[in-house]
Amino acid sequence: MTTGQTPVMEIRHVFKRFDATQALDDVSLILYPGEVHALIGENGAGKSTLIKIMTGIHRPDQGELLLDDEPIEVHNSQEAQGYGIAAIYQEPMVFPDLNVAENIFISHRTFGPIVRWKQMYREAERILTQLDVKLDVRQPARGLTLAAQQAVEIAKAISLQVRVLIMDEPTASLSAHEVRQLFNIVDALKEQGVAILFIGHRLEEVFEIGDRITVLRDGKWISSTPRAQVTADAIIRDMVGRKVEDFFVKSQTESGERLLSVHGLGKEGVFQDINFDIHQGEVLGFAGLVGSRRTDVGLALFGIEQADEGQIIFDGQERKIGSPQQALDLGIAYMSEDRRKLGLVMPMSITTNISLPTLKNYLSSLGLIKHKDEMATAEHFREELTIRSPSVEVEVEKLSGGNQQKVMLSKWLNANPKLLILDEPTRGIDVGAKADVHHLVNDLAAQGIAIILISSDLPEVLAMSDRVLVMREGRQMGVFTRDEATQEVVMTAAMGQNHAKNQTVVETRA
Amino acid sequence: MSRNLQRLKSWEGVLLLILVATIILNSTLAPSYLRVGNWINLFELSIEKIIVALAMTFIIINAEIDLSVASTMGLTAGVLAWLHMQGAPFPLAVIAALLMGVIAGAFNGFWIAYAGLPSLVVTLATMIMYRGGARILLEDRSIGEFPAWFSHLGQQPMVGPLPFALILFFALTILAIVVLHYSGFGRYVYVIGNNRDVAEYSGVKVRRVKMILFIVSGTAAALAGVLFAARLGAVRGDLANGFELDIITMVLLGGVSIFGGRGSMGGVLLSILIVLNLRNGMSLLNLTGHLQSGVIGVLLILSVLIPNMAAGVQGWLHRRRQAKIVHET
Fold first, then answer.
1. In terms of pTM, does the model score above 0.90?
2. Domain extents for chain A?
């Protein structure tokens, strides 16, 4: 349907690097008017970076953007808007106290210094009718449903003469009915000749709405296929094409006694009906895509977000875990995925960070810190985990990402956990540090520590885990043993495709 | 800690220079300046603020603020005077006043630590409330005629030439230094001030630490209010009105970051010495009180500006070095 047409926008051979990660590695895309181009890929495949480059938040290291065959440079979102490029996100950005029409025309200055309300309302109504959306333009945005807020954002983009509309996982928080409404709007946009880049993570939606489907993986362009020729299997294969063999593989260990059983764990509106066991010395991988709520389950076990239903049986006794202190006292540690915000006190020293959860062990009877003791501990971990730093008194903000990660690991290992929850322990660190972390996980398991490994890096989860629990949108899709868990099986479950035997192995071994 | 320490040290160095300059200037202006008696006098005139500033240092490093301290001083002194007026035994009145400080601090702490409200708003509200309480208790009266021992406590030397308040100040300073810089509690204060979420995710009882800090702040303010009453010999509803700003100034001038996590007791003590001596010197020069306040204000701006500028220059040098390295390789 699009052949022969001239593209609106073209992305040519774009590269972008952040520190250790090559976020985009020679990515090219062509967007045609009236076409929905669906973009799909694992977490970290480079989708977000691509959007940010298109909207001027990042600049490409190499490569160019073309609009109507003219190269353009986009330095910020205002400029992007000027070119007719707009993006809407999962969480719409509307001003709650302004009404619908005001939100639609928020970036307009064409109405002059005095607001001509009548004209604005008329214009807003016209745009909404175009989209077949029924909304009172005088209603304040506060209290609108997410779907309605998105409609307002789309109307805003239209009022700005949008030519390329990027939709970043717009359906993630919508109900089925709302998704239907959104797709109707998308159809209306197509008829007006808008080019749409639709980033999705539900395969069925992507198949329904996309005219062309492009897969990214590890920042690389993998395939672009017209919808007519696409199959779910092919897409999943493209998404997961990395080789597990490239990874260090966890050695098989005899797992010991059952340490933790979770029965029907749930938290209203976040996750539900989570069931699993974990044994001493076992690594249980948590796989899933963004929004699968794996982290929330981890936080519930660590007492930060309390579950409101279900049972946690730890060391043979039912426990309510109400705070991180309680979790630590039981022997549960959680290492956050967000090093800077939740993991380390960046301007403070390695020593201070390592001793923080266990500071009580370093206090004299008067409550004074035995600084020599805590430094000795820090020194011990510096050697053990080969943290590269001239001294343990250096602030962690001066270390590389990999070394910061090791400081964070030390901090939690020093608490002597029985169960260690590692949330994305290798994200954003270089290959060498990654391998160190993998070896460490292996050693810890061999010492009898149970490990929950939350990772979006599929080959990593598969290589490191004895069993893999797959989640999707707060639901447990299955638990797979090492032999069952291939990339295809896990990704299929994570994407919510039903043709695999994902429901057959929900029961964990006794 | 080295960079922050350097940054701090650079500011502490500036403070030290200003202090030495002030002392030299003052001693040339007035030969009597260097006498012990003058120094004691200097301290005595601001001792109440200084005691509260010690607690305020903890609060600001913890990334909070307590605007209600001066009103708490007024309220607790008011409770003391009112009970005295009602004929209560005086020691009992003192204890009740101190208890009032604990309650005032706990009230702040509850809303901030457990209800999660911003301390700026909570303590602004209680600043008005507590002052109102003092005025309701005392109306327009000035209550005095305290027992002789109490007035002596505020006005007469106790050990050698040192009055009670000064001795208390020395003891509290040592305690504050030890707790802030050497105890586990002090470590938590810094960690929470730097990153509350990391502290929470590490099992630190963040709320409890904040609660304790505000109770300590209220208690210190009560102590200061009682001492002030003893020194003045009479209490009115507007006692210590506006002191909170002088107190916060002392702390910030000492290099404590208003965003929390940074600063030291040493810096605050230096800044206290500077404020005292500078005002003394400017009085010797016959500068008006308003002009004196202006000078202190300029210093406060510099205290924020200079460490930032130093960091900026450092960063610029660093980048230039890096660029050179890249260029050469």
1. no
2. 9-239, 244-331+417-510, 347-416
Q: Do B2 and A346 touch (CB under 8 A)?
A: no
What is the count of structural domains for chain B? 1
Tokens describing residue A326? 């309680």
Minimal-distance CA residue of chain A relative to B192: A345
DSSP string, A421-480: EEESTTTT--HHHHHHHHHHHHHHHHTT-EEEEE-S-HHHHHHH-SEEEEEETTEEEEEE
A9-239 CATH fold: Rossmann fold (3.40.50)
As for the ipTM of the complex, it is 0.87
Q: Give A369's contacts in chain B (Cβ within 8 Å).
A: 182-184, 187
- Phi, psi at residue B295, to the nearest 5°? -60, -45
Tell me which chain B residue has its CA closest to the CA of residue A354.
B202
The CATH number assigned to the domain holding B302 equals: 1.10.3470
- Containing structural domain, residue B53: 2-328
Contacts of B190 in chain A (CB under 8 A): 348
Domain A244-331+417-510 adopts which CATH fold? Answer: Rossmann fold (3.40.50)
| Same fold across A9-239 and A244-331+417-510 | yes
Environment class of residue B325 by beta-carbon count within 10 Å: exposed (0-12), middle (13-18) or buried (19+)?
A: exposed
Residue A140 neighbours by CB distance under 10 Å: 16
| pLDDT, one tens digit for every residue, chain A (510 residues) | 444 578 999 999 999 988 767 889 999 999 999 999 999 887 778 888 899 999 998 999 999 999 998 999 999 888 898 899 999 887 788 898 999 998 998 877 666 677 788 888 998 999 998 888 888 999 998 888 888 888 899 999 888 889 999 998 888 777 778 888 889 999 999 998 999 999 987 788 888 999 999 999 888 999 999 988 988 888 888 887 766 555 677 777 677 889 999 999 999 989 999 999 999 999 999 998 877 899 999 999 999 999 999 999 999 999 999 999 999 999 999 999 999 899 999 999 999 999 999 999 999 999 999 999 999 999 999 999 989 888 999 999 988 888 999 999 999 999 999 999 999 998 877 777 888 899 999 999 999 999 999 998 888 899 999 999 999 989 999 999 988 988 889 988 988 775 444 344 433 333
| B198–A345 C-beta distance less than 8 A | yes
